[in-house]
Specification:
It comes from Streptomyces luteosporeus. InterPro entries: DinB/YfiT-like, MST-like. It holds the Pfam family MST. There is one protein chain. It contains five helices and no strands. With about 180 residues, it is an all-alpha fold. It has one domain: Four Helix Bundle (Hemerythrin (Met), subunit A). Helix 1 packs antiparallel against helix 3, helix 1 packs parallel to helix 5 and helix 3 packs parallel to helix 4. The chain is globular.
């Protein structure tokens, strides 16, 4: 049986009176911590457990996917860095979600947290109005940091809904 991974699950509460930047960053950090909270206290085996066939979505897959998402928006789009994928390939574009018995929660969590750390560093030096240096395949114009932060909140919120259902299926835990 896989050992339980250690995930910090304390979640910051977004301010109700902050300025725009603090509000956006507060909500993004809240959603990042919400996903960690949904993964906390589970074994690798539980983190690998898929939702319902034919879906392969799992909590470990969500951590891996969000590492790729953080990397994409803050390295590739915001900074135009040539950052290669972490988990997926051209041949396997959904590889971040395709976890195997060899994949570990500790590695997925550490990689995801590293990408969050880089994302925070990249965003910290920019104004909300600063335009991205790179482009996203569905946007021909540069995107502002404000747009990227808002999109990241939406991305996490959507996947946290998936995480709610996955966690409830694994051990019955509900709530936020």
């Amino acid at each position: 049986m896989d050992g339980m991974i250690t995930i910090t699950s304390e979640r910051p509460k977004p301010s109700t009176h902050a300025g725009e930047r603090d509000m956006l960053e507060g909500w993004l950090d809240h959603h990042r911590a919400t996903l960690a909270h949904k993964c906390a206290g589970l074994t690798d085996e539980q983190l690998r457990e898929a939702s319902v066939p034919p879906s392969v979505m799992s909590l470990m897959g969500l951590m891996r996917h969000m590492a790729e998402v953080e990397r994409h928006w803050f390295r590739r789009v915001l900074d135009d860095e040539d950052a290669p994928p972490i988990y997926y390939t051209d041949a396997e574009p959904d590889r971040d979600f395709l976890v195997t018995a060899e994949d570990s929660g500790d590695e997925a969590y550490a990689t995801w947290q590293q990408e969050i750390s880089v994302a925070r560093e990249r965003a910290a030096t920019r104004s909300l109005d600063d335009a991205s240096l790179g482009r996203h395949r569905s946007h021909t114009d540069p995107l502002t940091l404000r747009w990227i932060l808002t999109h990241m909140i939406e991305e996490y919120a959507r996947h946290n809904g998936h995480a709610d259902l996955l966690r409830e299926r694994i051990d019955g835990a509900t709530g936020h």
